[in-house]
Design a protein that fits this description.
This protein is mainly α. It contains 13 helices and no strands. It has one domain: MetI-like (MetI-like fold, Orthogonal Bundle). 38% of the residues are buried.
Length: 305
Amino acid sequence: MTDVASSDRPVVVPSGVEPTPGMLLRRRIFGHAGFVIGATVLGIIVLMALLAPLISPADPYDQDLSNKLIPPIWSDSAKATWEHPLGTDLLGRDYMSRLFHGAQISLLIGFAAMLISGVIGTTLGVLAGYFGGRVDMVINFIITTRLSMPVVLVALAVVSLMGSSLTMVIWVLGLLIWDRFAVVMRSATQQVRNLDFVTSAQAVGCSTGRILFSEVMPNIANSLIVIATIEMAHAILLEATLSFLGLGVQPPEPSWGLMIAEAKGMMFFDGWLIAIPGTALFALVLAINLLGDGIRDVTAPENRN
């Protein structure tokens, strides 16, 4: 990811006033355009997901074939109505309601898969980077084995064999996308393990666990944040891919990938059926990446002074 805005500009404060840590933090946060945009868009989507049962104009599962393919309100069609602001799908289900509830599924799968993969990958990466030697060799072999397996093909095979459900999709993705965590955490830990503060902790007899959690982890947190946001976005896109191929979240659940799959036959006739969930998916992934990039910049050690 690339920086959207620099966050290391000097803080402007009144003459004679010493800037406090809080002032510096606020200046870095609100001076970083990517952070502000990402946090705003992601906040809107999270709020939309949390309030979906309250703000949805209809039940996302209710079918009404007499009202199918009603266009959104911005179209020129006489069929457009404020009763269904974003229109209805091929089965007459309200599209706005399905979009709101689909945000719940995307965020749940993205966060849960990222958490599972993060625990696995970070543990392996930190152990490999800190201990080195045979431990590093064994973990490198595990990472190489995982990298030799194509994620989408393995996920398709496992889901088709084990059955497709929300829980299964979360576990399959979580167990398949930990490799980037492992590689980056291994490299970051190798850079930190020989620094003076780690050597000092070893010299005074601190336990390995305390050194890892108190000395190593805080100093590789920036890298962890960036990878976590990348993998959360990756998991959301993989879920949409699996749902689009019919092996992810199953109907009638309102997954954004499934909404795109159901509308692919109408692409050239009612393009909004694909454009609406596709735009929502794009906005969510972009917001997560911008937010992660901003958090990295705001919390970087070189920007704390």
